[in-house]
Amino acid sequence: MFGKKIRTEIKVEGMHCNHCAGKVEAAIKALDGVKSVKVDLDSKSAEIVSSAELDRAVLAKAISDAGFTMAE
Ligand SMILES: [Cu+2]
Fold it and tell me: What is the edge-to-edge ordering of all strands in the sheet holding 6-13?
């Protein structure tokens, strides 16, 4: 089975430690279609691999619900 793989890179503000990064990672992973998430604390970014195009508004909401801010 060959699934579609879409990469999305976003910027996340407000992370201070690995615990924060873990919360962001969990919030994104819970979204529909997300296969993997790699959060990088130093570059304040997250690389997401999903099976469908992610709605940026949905991403932004998940991240703000977790207590952080997605930069445009
Ligand atoms: Cu933290």
Answer: 34-40, 45-50, 6-13, 69-71
